[in-house]
């Protein structure tokens, strides 16, 4: 099997793409119900992963998070949608990796595959200058060792992002 076919097969198996027959593949649309489910799952899992990460946080991991956040802020400043999306995902991945909870992290990765394409639409609609960013609050809470404040910042970050997706869906 070629690398492209294997990648497509895996993305279809993960629910990130839908096979339409006749060699057509599409990104699944987000319905309001699907968005509700994704929001619930993210709101449940991501703050818990953040709590776990806070309990295992190291100075090196904090440095990586600060670097990711700095790169993300630079992308926002110049309106670089691709850079924003890349660094936002990288930031979240760093947090989840620090949690040392591979089952939950794999589940969250699959959720990101489902709503990730919609983030690009949100960025196209709103640009990068109006995107919410709770990452600095999260980093401060992690640096202070405040597990619950870190979880709260992550929950707010999830809520804001999912709200923006919901707004764009309602306009479509």
TrEMBL record:
Record's superkingdom?
Bacteria
Q: Which Gene3D superfamilies match?
A: GntR ligand-binding domain-like
Q: Pfam families, from UniProt?
A: FCD
Indicate the segments forming the GntR C-terminal domain, all copies.
37-160
Protein name per Swiss-Prot or TrEMBL: GntR family transcriptional regulator
Question: What are the record keywords, sorted?
Answer: DNA-binding, Transcription, Transcription regulation
From which source organism is this entry? Sulfitobacter porphyrae
Q: Which residues form a coiled coil?
A: none
């Amino acid at each position: 099997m070629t690398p492209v076919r294997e990648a497509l097969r895996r993305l279809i198996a993960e629910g990130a793409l839908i096979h339409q027959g006749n060699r057509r593949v599409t990104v699944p649309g987000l319905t309001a119900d699907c968005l509700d489910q994704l929001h619930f799952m993210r709101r449940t899992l991501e703050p818990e992963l953040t709590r776990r990460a806070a309990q295992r946080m190291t100075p090196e991991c904090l440095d990586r998070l600060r670097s990711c956040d700095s790169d993300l802020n630079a992308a926002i400043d110049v309106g670089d949608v691709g850079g924003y999306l890349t660094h936002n995902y990288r930031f979240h991945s760093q947090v989840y990796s620090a949690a040392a909870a591979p089952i939950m992290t794999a589940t969250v990765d699959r959720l990101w595959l489902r709503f990730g394409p919609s983030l690009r639409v949100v960025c196209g609609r709103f640009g990068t200058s109006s995107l919410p960013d709770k990452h600095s609050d999260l980093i401060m809470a992690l640096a202070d060792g405040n597990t619950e404040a870190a979880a709260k910042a992550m929950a707010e970050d999830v809520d804001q992002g999912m709200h923006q997706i919901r707004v764009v869906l309602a306009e479509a």
